[in-house]
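lol so apparently i was supposed to do this last week
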Amino acid sequence: MHCYDVVIIGAGPSGATAAYHCAKSGLDTLFVDKSQFPRYKGCGGGLSEQAMSYLDFPVNDKVIERDVYAARIRFGTEAIEVQKPYRIAALVTRSKFDYFLVQRAIEVGAKFLENERVTELRVSDECVDITTNKKKLQAKLVIGADGSQGVSFRSVSDRLRRGEYAVGVVTENTADNSEIDKYIFNSVEIHFGVTTMGYGWVFPHEGYLNVGVAGIADKLRNPKKILTDFIRERGFHGQYRFHAHRLPIYGAVKKKVRDRIILVGDAAGYVDSFLGEGIAYAILSGKIAAGVCYEALQHNDGWREDFLKLYNDMCYEQFEHNLRYSLVSAKLMHRFPNLFLSLMASDENTVDRFLEIPAGRLTHRGYLQWMIPRLPSCLLRRTVKKMLQWKDIG
Ligand SMILES: Cc1cc2nc3c(=O)[nH]c(=O)nc-3n(C[C@H](O)[C@H](O)[C@H](O)COP(=O)(O)OP(=O)(O)OC[C@H]3O[C@@H](n4cnc5c(N)ncnc54)[C@H](O)[C@@H]3O)c2cc1C
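anyway here it is w/ flavin-adenine dinucleotide bound
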């Protein structure tokens, strides 16, 4: 049986990027997905400037539906809108974006099997035996890019508990572009306080508004009702089809590699806990995993867990340590929601600086370092503002 250098399971952003870099470096590469592409993927479609900077190529204009320069942040009755002179993010429909990445990987020589589900992985001293619903495959190394509930994740790591992942429910609200422009144009709307450790959002796309809510699973009772209420409060009407998905927002999983297998993207828990952004880290971890596979194949014992742990170190250094600060912010929001979120929604500077994170100009650590010394004066300003409002009402 033919033994590939690398087989990648899953062709989302992490898998397609890993396939692209493996094939580009000359490895005999196959990537496999259970779906037929282009396939639907429930997601806000927010592609941060940072995420785009991790790609080797620009994203096609036909794939980008809108450029985002502004954000409208709401918390309860308070709202703040901040405009930036530069692009913060772009909005894409995932079926098109993911297919775009798949095509780039095929172009540089990766072989693609779609509509084929991987059902089992067996690791031996010689190779990994991969069973799909159609055939058997063999690889020297496997990159697990099939998400936080996938077969790769289960073969490396322990199950996530309900407090370790979020549930996101999303719907697409069809609308004329002129209506969308009037409602939101080149901004995104984010509503904190709708869920615990999460938020509600309205993102403008081509011919539809993407509306959703996400929050930590163990605190999220009836997310579909929360989304229905959220939609009504925005004044939208119509019949909606809801799609619910898991999002591993409680930090990277402890075990990301074992002999011959590396987990990337959602499978490794690489999601920004505060923003819920996963595409950037899916792309970057896919790229790092491909580099480690290349190195591993140059060494006799490169397939062993001890060698593959190089991947953990590289991810930690390049982005994982920053994601830990995002988790700190998310936990603060969880512990002191009124204080933290009302501060964000009541001071323009805090939102202005915050938008530099998706723009790739500031880290979560940098934001916390900037924010913490300002807390007392922010609090004082907020108290005075409230007192003046009461006086006006009186
Ligand atoms: C509601 C919601 C909204 C979100 N909004 C945003 C956003 O606006 N911006 C952002 O950056 N992130 C967002 N995310 C997070 C983002 O979607 C993920 O972090 C990202 O898709 C992870 O990429 P991935 O390649 O690791 O996994 P995925 O994109 O999930 O890809 C996994 C692939 O594996 C395939 N697969 C699964 N099992 C098997 C199998 N057994 N055999 C073969 N193939 C298999 C699947 O078909 C799929 O194509 C959102 C998530 C949710 C749930």
